[in-house]
Design goal:
Mean pLDDT: 93
Helix content: 10-25%
Radius of gyration: 26 Å
Low-confidence stretches: 1-33, 36-43
Structural class: alpha+beta
Number of strands: 27
Strand order of the largest sheet: 16-13-12-25-26-27
Largest sheet: 6 strands, mixed
CATH superfamily of the largest domain: Metallo-dependent phosphatases
Strand content: 15-25%
Amino acid sequence: MFRCFKNRLKSLTTIFLCVFCLTLIYGCFSNSQTPNSQQTAEASSLLTEPFLQKPTDNSVTVAWFTEFPGEKNTVAYGDNLNQTAEATTIKLSHTREDQKSRVGNQTEDKQIYQKPVPRDIWRHEAEITGLTPGKEIDYQVISKPENSGEAKSKVYQLEPAPQPGKPLKILLSSDHQLKSMTAANLQKAKKTAGNIDAVFMAGDLINISDRASEWFDDNRGGAFFPALQGRANYEIDKNGVKTAYQGGEIIQEAPIFTAIGNHEVMGRRGKSEDLGGEYNDAIPREVAQNLYGKSSLKANSFNTDTYEEIFSLPESKSGGEKYYATTFGDVRLVVLNATNIWRGPSLESDTKGKYREREADFENPEKWGYGQHIFEPIDKDSSQYNWLVEELNSPEFKQAKYKVVMLHHPVHSLGENIVPAYTNPVQTIEKDDRGKIKAIKYEYPLEEDYLIRDIVPLLEANNVQLVFYGHSHLWNRFKSESGINFLESSNVGNSYGASLGDKKRNVPQGYKEKYIEVGNPNGLEAIVPSIKPLTGEDGKPLPYIASKEITVFSILDTGKGTVNSYYFDTTKPESEVVNFDEFTL
């Protein structure tokens, strides 16, 4: 009997040890694969500070993010924060981390994540109503976790949309993408402008839209929200001098209006090993329908779901948040959805690029990239075009003092990304005598550029004063005979150069269409900055800034009716910001 008891005790001990070991193993695995398991358990802080959206004449929306749903999420506001607005909460649908994330303890590829893993993030939003134009009030957001305590933001100020006639300073920015100079750029913009009243952001906010850490907490210190909220910590090492930049405390008190760039778009879900592959795997909707049918069309082609969940923007009837118009003080802002997938220019046989398909994929249309295809139609008689015609004829647009159009793709530019033309790719399939495919090519007729052919004539006919865009990561500006100012101010975080002189674009030779190697393919000459241009090696002033060491930002001043552009040399951290250009609307 005693022996039987000993055997039972031994068995129970063995079972206990097995369960204990399995628990430890599961815990380690869980912590390594679930990005916010620890944060959910502790849940003691906000993931972002609050930011402002959708101001109206008597209201504004406050939004923020946490890694816990919260038992109660509120905005306290008014005198002594004595009023409360309850927030509505959603869980982001597709945010993940993967092998290439730089988050938590992962500082190299695949240290923790071996594949894309869901990351739970909640967005909270409350509309503050009954506001008086021109009167600022205090506000603070509060989220209460399920365990105990509460997470609070700092106290900030908000107000509704400004009335016409109020002088405003609006930051014009684009192409942040966690690049090396972005935090420095925003820090200097805030210091230079002082009170920034709004941000107009012309797309490419991040690199991979579904990678959560790029928005919130990339461990290199330059994620999107921290940089725009003064909470970044990005170190630049120049000439042995290390300088850390925190970005600017901007969007807590200045509403941000954004346009969709190519980096806000994700491709087919679940068909790639990592999120970068998924981003690059977008195909046209009509192709997806032919391949997979009508069900799950977005998942099988492309989507902007995460972008649309993160922001609350004005909406149009036909485009929702993807293209819209709004009035902010003296400005009527028209935001277009003009972007296409970016593909490489190489003509090598293993390239799925702008101008060709990969040779190994010739017989498999499911693996084709379909060239540099456009995401949202904007050509004549498209829904977006018809909406734009209606908007340009609206009383709100006609009566505005300043008429500004913002989009991502450049209209006039010295940059690489303006070539090929902004038009649907024309596919040519070449076969040998046996019917076997020997080449799949894509052409882009310059005369069919939708922005130049269809959109610019509309803007000229309706007295638009400023068209603002990004995409090529440089600063340059142009002016048409009708008086439209075209500004590309995207040398924010880095640059890919300007195509002038000896620097030529990567364009195909021997194709039917002509692809412009240098200069602006759409005709206008770039304007030399009016105050203090940079100079080339020959000492002559340059009509652009395209630098990996000098960062540029632009400010629209509605009180003066001017746009001023500034640069800061990151190799000289103690140097002053330089106002190098100004033009009048």
